[in-house]
Amino acid sequence: MKKTILIVDDDMDYLFQMKLKVEQFGFDTITADGQKEAESIIETVRPDLAILDLMMESDDSGFILAYKIKRMYPDVPIIIATAVTAETGITFDINTDENKQWIKADLFLDKGIRADQLQREINKLLKI
Length: 128
Known about the structure:
Layout: E1 4-8, H1 12-24, E2 28-32, H2 35-42, E3 49-52, H3 61-72, E4 78-82, H4 84-88, H5 97-102, E5 107-110, H6 115-125
Helix pairs in contact: 2-3
């Protein structure tokens, strides 16, 4: 049984590229172009892993969506793939106890990640 990965991003080109990469790794994908669409998807589908953009409808859409996914499916790993550091210089460290309380992501990746690194991180989170 193939694992299903939810990919959410408001950049349609990036969303398409991620979908192709992830499917080449052997996974099924479900895509959404924003927080609202993703929220309706997770009402009926439990993904095995989610890859979320951070800034979509609002600057914190990815954080909100991660929180909602973890509330519904606590064991689903979440990757936030973002260009926020490159665009703003702001970095997020999910390894501090303080940040773990409000950032419900398992991993932060900068957009532009190499395919082999992405595959390694997905496999690690899915324990493959």
